[in-house]
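Hi F.,

I've been meaning to write this up properly since the lab meeting, where we talked about keeping a consistent format for the predictions we share between groups. The idea is simple: the sequence comes first, exactly as it goes in, then the structure tokens exactly as they come out, then a line or two of notes. No screenshots and no reformatting. I'm using this chain as the first example so we have something concrete to point to.
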Amino acid sequence: MAAMAAMIALIDYGAGNLRSVHNALLAAGATGVEVTSDPDTVARAERIVLPGVGAFAACMGALSRIPGMVEALDRRVVAEARPFLGICVGMQLMAEAGEEHGRHDGLGWIGGTVRRLEPGDPALKVPHMGWNDVAPNAAATARGAGLIAAGEAYFLHSYQFDVADPADVLAATDHGGAVTAAVGRDTMVGVQFHPEKSQAYGLAFLARFLAWKP
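Output, unedited:
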């Protein structure tokens, strides 16, 4: 596979597994990955990756405390339509709001709210942790629909993205009921699973994201 030469901004806001994500991007064929907390770097990036581990409010707060970062993301991703990938809580921050430790505003890029997982089977534990099936949504109309393949990925989360428009749900998994596994709209995509922990499946997904030309 040919290396991807475009500069990729991997955002460091103190809330992501940066080393593992960085290594996975390189393994998937990326070059020019820059780990950054600089909004000016984000404003020049051809692709942007936002990881996230922890609570919604803490992650959104950390992102917002970097002067100019949310504005740079809005401009580069929404206004200028550069490809964006949110991972785990980085995906959840794409929502309008999250309900972890109270209700908190998200980036507001995709309609919906992040709510606590409540499996229909009381025997199933929260957090949802481990390998689970990813089932693409054949009815998804977002341009990122082709990025998500059927397979198994690694999940670790206690909250799920309750998406307002079903067409924005690119894939689902099951944990005592359907759970959003991937979302997308325009030039942005987010995954609840961890591609950096999902071995061959995760690397193949990252390679598709790197080659994606929405």
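Notes:
The radius of gyration is 16 Å.
The chain has a mean pLDDT of 92.

If this format works for you, I'll send the rest the same way.

G.
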